[in-house]
Amino acid sequence: MITDRLPAHVAIIMDGNGRWAKRRGLGRLLGHREGYRTLRKVLLAASELGVRYLTVYAFSAENWRRPEEEVKGLMKLIETAARDELRVMHKNNVRVRVAGRIDEVPATLRQALCDGIETTKDNTGITFTLAINYGGRAEVVDAVRAILAEGGEVTEEAISAHLYNPDQPEPDLMIRTAGEMRWSNFLLWQSAYTELVVVSETWPEFDENSLRRCLDEYATRTRKFGAVVDEPTPIPHG
Ligand code: FPP
Fold first, then answer.
1. Cβ(105) to ligand 1 under 6 A?
2. What single DSSP character describes residue 66?
3. For 122-136, what is each residue's pLDDT tens digit?
4. Are 44 and 88 in contact (CB under 8 A)?
5. Which of 54, 70, 211, 230 stands 20 to 30 A from 8 (CA)?
């Protein structure tokens, strides 16, 4: 694996849990449960590889439109995961964060998340951010509202400084599983120059090796940030 061009911040759209379950004749919630097992492995692998920030899309602001049973099951799964994994995350020096309108999620889940954030806030390893009830547009609206409430001027710098986690670097790499070529309202503001890698595997099928392949793909990309960057001149044929 190429290690000298490691992304500092990796964001993941964990898609395809439902399709994974359906193909096996299982209920959608079993797909999400398998997705949780993948997330556990991928977080530890990313941490061991030296990624500094991992941000995952666990529940979007649009996911409330899903059947009630699925929404409830997902909330419960995230809450159970937050409680069960806290010890292991703390032991691994993981710093837990959230992004999203957390005041709108069930109180017991909010409490589990707050406990995780508080317990791990001084950890110095990977920063693991769970995007829950998260929408990229809502994040920008919330930032602008906060600026106006302070009587400030709305500038790009001010918006960046009022995002949910303004101290975090913008994602270098966005991974999306299950083949869909969409951004789905994830980290819209901070992904202006993020490299996108889409893989065909569903999220439950994704593993440490898949992560390594995505990091290798990232390492081959030339990042331009809107400027002109010299590419190596190709050798003419013939
Ligand atoms: C997308 O698959 C996935 C989600 C909406 C939820 C992601 C949640 C997990 C991976 C569960 C574990 C999370 C934590 C934090 C413990 P989909 O249901 O849209 O799949 P489909 O497009 O195939 O239907």
1. no
2. S
3. 999 999 999 999 999
4. no
5. 230
